[in-house]
Input
Amino acid sequence: MDSDGRLLFFGGSGKTASTETARPVDEYANNDGWFDDMSDGVIKASVTFPDGHTEIAQPAWVAVGPPKFAPGICNVVTLYDTLWDMAVRLRQVCQAGNDPVLQDLVAQQAAWQDQTNDFAESYTPSFVAQIYPVLSRALAARDVHEPPIGRPDYHGTLPDWTRLASRSEDQMRQAVFRRIRNPNSDQLDRLNMPRGLGDDYTTLDFFEDDASNNPPPTPQAFLSVPKVQYALLKAWSEGRFKEDWTFGDVRFAPIPAPGAITPHGLDCAALENCVGGPFYPGIEVSWLIRQPDLYAGAFRLRDSGFSLGPLFFQPGFFSQQMALPWQADFYDCHKEDHTPDSSDERLIYMWWTAQRPDDIRADASGPYRRWVEPFDAAKEPLTPDPDDITNLARFEQMRTRWSELSFVVLDGDEHLEQK
Output
């Protein structure tokens, strides 16, 4: 505990090792005999007050994942978004108290319409709190993911926040919304946003390898925003939102000054920096985090010690799904080309660029380079490309040299390389 009585938790430091019989890392996820210091588990506390009485605090869960190399950028879908989506749609118990954020969660629960996956017209989202964060993450992705060749205007509309935050700009808002992939659709959508791969990535991979013996990819082969997030964007596109943008003509809104520490604020600070999708398998946690039976309420997991099907909810429950060692998947989850022969546009999809950048720049006017370019010199001689699956040196490079890679931080209004 610190001097103010706050509980401090010190997680892993990214170390990896193996047993004597383990083979060299040769696969992105399942390498027998290897282990690392990623972890997760329950934290319990007994609090003794000055008058001598003792109370047992509600348990909390902590997870330790790999480092985040673009700390100023959030993924388009964060873990906070995923848990918020569940809390609204499943109407998980929420003790809002005087917290305005949780009061808004309760309001969304009341306005949510299960039949249409939409909000009643009585609910009005805030542009600053609920629309800008989604769109600004898409804009920030440009700083860790080189725009397509021939598309210098990629996401060029997004920095015009003053117009996007105005109810008078119907055409502009609706044009942006039309480019967002619908999570409620049962149709495969290759073209829309987020331009990312999804949970069902294997259906895309298998189909491209052998279309004659595999069914077409499922809609979940590509990443979609959560249903609640999509409904908020839909309300915005229809002009049902609060015009509360006050920052003028800037690329990104100013970072607010720190406010009072609240329990939900601590949850948000952790979860908004974690990956909320896709879960293939993910970075910090995987798809088990979406299991409703795990929750005692909004943003609150049940106490450990019960079964979920064949699994037992205990320390390690979430990290058991993650790639081992973590560096293998961390290298391989870079952008991929999945352009079908019939497409006029080259289609490049990303995984988790806010955690593991694809491309970075040393300055705003300079060229992009591959983030893992420092590892290329160690490429196996007969391998045609450093990212090719036959170049097993890529795993050893990431495993032993990951701490040498550059971070990407906000410099002015651009996120640039910082060694």
Notes: The first strand starts at residue 16 and ends at 18. The chain is about 25% helix and 15% strand. The two ends are 32 Å apart (CA to CA). The chain has a mean pLDDT of 94.
